Amino acid sequence: MSQVLGLMFALIGLGFLLRVLRVFPKETAPLLNRFVLYVTFPCLVFRSLQGATLDRRLWSIPPLAYVAISALFLLAFLIGSKYFRLPPRRAVSFAMGAAFGNTAFLGYPFILALLGEEGLPAAIFYDQLGNFLSVYTLGVTFCVFGKTGKFSGKNVTEFLKLPPFNAFLLALLLNGLPLPPFLLGIINRLADATVPLTMVAIGLALSPTSLSKDAPLLGASALLKLLLLPLVALGLVKLFPLPPLYAKVFVLQSATPTLVSSYVFASVYELDTELSSSIICATTLIALGSLPLWNLLL
Q1: Among 259, 214, 252, 209, which residue's Cα sits nearest to residue 233?
Q2: Residue 55, pLDDT above cutoff 70
């Protein structure tokens, strides 16, 4: 896990250095984010699920994950709007940072290293059918609200336009079917580019002033994401018992730091990218200590 987190921070640092040196124009980060959202991230989603083993007991994970994550998102949005008095674009960025976890980029390798291949299907189901389904539905609906300042019926279907969601549906349709090696090779190469491109883009958008001026927001988002959500997850697996392996994966996935793609959505929907990048950096740094601690407690 430390290697994964170290790699993430190295790439963020590279992006920040490129910003300081003004190697690329200001519009580079948004362009990188669009490439990730429309090209590489769909490939990562497809690769993660298309070859997964669909054990029927795994289907008990997504509803619990979706409810927990969505409830925390709504709570965080209310805290941001009412307590911190944030405008919609900042309140949505805050809520995404507090609720949506890095359940793929960090969750997969952490679960794989800790529990082996047998823990990975549960991690994927939590990620794709719980975490990202909440992102695609509730998250995108509020992203549109943050951009336009109003809700509409169209907001609810906005996620249907996103390539990652279409890749998710296609992966379910083609689950377990053999695919041409040439096609898989292309998908794998593009999927592998998601993490480095996103990390560099975060570094390009990172503002030192945001890290200091938004310290209360960073602290609140870290408490919600790294403490409250895993506590809720722990309560849920007590109320609705899962197999021990699945229960442990469920709590550990809930304890992952902020989803790096929340920055991509903040950029695409013109929300507060500085706040998003700061929350990602803060929660990821804290997770160096909190994730191993949760592992010891389970």
Answers
A1: 252
A2: yes
Residue 4 has pLDDT above 70, yes or no: no
Which pLDDT does position 158 carry in this prediction? 66
Alpha carbon of residue 6 to chain centroid? 18
How many structural domains is the chain composed of? Answer: 1
Say if residue 128 is exposed, middle or buried (CB neighbours under 10 Å; 0-12, 13-18, 19+): buried
* Sign of the torsion angle spanned by Cα atoms 163, 167, 168, 170: positive
Q: Write out the DSSP string of 85-106.
A: ---HHHHHHHHHHHH-B-TTTT
pTM: 0.80
Gap between the terminal Cα atoms of the chain:
17
**Rounded Cα distance, 94 and 20, in Å:** 25
* CATH number reported for the structural domain that contains residue 213 in this entry: 1.20.1530.20
SS3 assignment, position 298: coil
CA-to-CA distance for 41 and 55, rounded, in angstroms? Answer: 25
Helix or strand or coil: residue 162? coil
pLDDT in tens, 228-273: 999 999 999 999 989 999 999 999 999 999 998 898 889 888 899 8
* pLDDT band (50, 70, 90) for residue 184: very high
Angle formed at CA 271 by CA 69 and CA 146, multiple of 5 degrees: 70
Q: What is the domain range of residue 170?
A: 2-21+30-297
Specify burial of residue 183 (Cβ count, 10 A radius: 0-12, 13-18, 19+).
exposed
